């Protein structure tokens, strides 16, 4: 199906372009959300009449998204979750959890604007990409930790999943002799 795009859509085209898309994509996504019109003569005339209004609205949305991006740029958000000693979470952190954390901090971001291909399943610092507008995207840092104290230590660069953090042992100081005696007579012993 041929459609006229009413806004820029990534990997598809710019506003005003007539593009060919699959029928289902047009019927189920582009047309119901008002992102496109069917490409016929009446809609082409309608688009040309409304073009200035659409471009102004798009520019306004883009500037709002850029303002939010400037406020979010360089920020780190802490999410506290239960986890085992190895750092594996007893659940996961999904896009919904990231949106809730951003909302608590005064940012109104939709769940569909968070690009998280797989849920976060381990403690640590994670980069998450936010698509605020079709032309504005940025990465924020999400600090997943077991407590606020651990989050501060992780932010400073300390690893909480190493042997040192878990058992209080310095990994660099460990030697093979610490685990077995190389001079032991193993041939005379029976298992």
Automatic annotation (TrEMBL):
<keyword id="KW-0689">Ribosomal protein</keyword>
<protein>
    <recommendedName>
        <fullName>Large ribosomal subunit protein bL9</fullName>
    </recommendedName>
</protein>
<keyword id="KW-0699">rRNA-binding</keyword>
<feature type="region of interest" description="Disordered">
    <location>
        <begin position="151"/>
        <end position="191"/>
    </location>
</feature>
<dbReference type="GO" id="GO:0005840">
    <property type="term" value="C:ribosome"/>
</dbReference>
<comment type="function">
    <text>Binds to the 23S rRNA.</text>
</comment>
<keyword id="KW-0687">Ribonucleoprotein</keyword>
<dbReference type="InterPro" id="IPR000244">
    <property type="entry name" value="Ribosomal_bL9"/>
</dbReference>
<dbReference type="InterPro" id="IPR036935">
    <property type="entry name" value="Ribosomal_bL9_N_sf"/>
</dbReference>
<feature type="domain" description="Ribosomal protein L9">
    <location>
        <begin position="13"/>
        <end position="40"/>
    </location>
</feature>
<comment type="similarity">
    <text>Belongs to the bacterial ribosomal protein bL9 family.</text>
</comment>
<dbReference type="Pfam" id="PF01281">
    <property type="entry name" value="Ribosomal_L9_N"/>
</dbReference>
<keyword id="KW-0694">RNA-binding</keyword>
<keyword id="KW-0175">Coiled coil</keyword>
<feature type="compositionally biased region" description="Acidic residues">
    <location>
        <begin position="179"/>
        <end position="191"/>
    </location>
</feature>
<dbReference type="InterPro" id="IPR020594">
    <property type="entry name" value="Ribosomal_bL9_bac/chp"/>
</dbReference>
<dbReference type="InterPro" id="IPR036791">
    <property type="entry name" value="Ribosomal_bL9_C_sf"/>
</dbReference>
<dbReference type="InterPro" id="IPR020070">
    <property type="entry name" value="Ribosomal_bL9_N"/>
</dbReference>
<feature type="coiled-coil region">
    <location>
        <begin position="37"/>
        <end position="69"/>
    </location>
</feature>
<dbReference type="InterPro" id="IPR009027">
    <property type="entry name" value="Ribosomal_bL9/RNase_H1_N"/>
</dbReference>
<dbReference type="Pfam" id="PF03948">
    <property type="entry name" value="Ribosomal_L9_C"/>
</dbReference>
<dbReference type="InterPro" id="IPR020069">
    <property type="entry name" value="Ribosomal_bL9_C"/>
</dbReference>
């Amino acid at each position: 199906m041929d459609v006229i795009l009413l806004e820029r859509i990534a990997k598809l085209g710019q506003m005003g372009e007539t593009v060919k898309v699959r029928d289902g994509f047009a019927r189920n996504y582009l047309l119901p959300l008002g992102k496109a019109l069917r490409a016929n003569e009446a809609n082409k005339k309608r688009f040309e009449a409304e073009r200035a209004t659409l471009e102004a609205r798009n520019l306004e949305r883009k500037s709002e998204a850029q303002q939010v991006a400037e406020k979010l740029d360089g920020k780190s958000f802490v999410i506290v979750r239960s986890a085992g000693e190895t750092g594996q979470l007893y659940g996961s952190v999904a896009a919904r959890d990231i949106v809730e954390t951003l909302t608590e901090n005064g940012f109104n971001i939709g769940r569909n604007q968070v690009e998280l291909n797989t849920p976060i399943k381990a403690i640590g610092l994670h980069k998450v990409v936010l698509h605020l507008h079709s032309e504005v995207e940025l990465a924020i840092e999400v600090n997943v930790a077991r407590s606020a104290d651990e989050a501060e230590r992780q932010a400073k660069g300390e690893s909480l999943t190493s042997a040192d953090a878990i058992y209080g042992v310095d990994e660099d100081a460990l030697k093979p002799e610490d685990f077995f005696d190389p001079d032991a007579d193993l041939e005379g012993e029976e298992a």
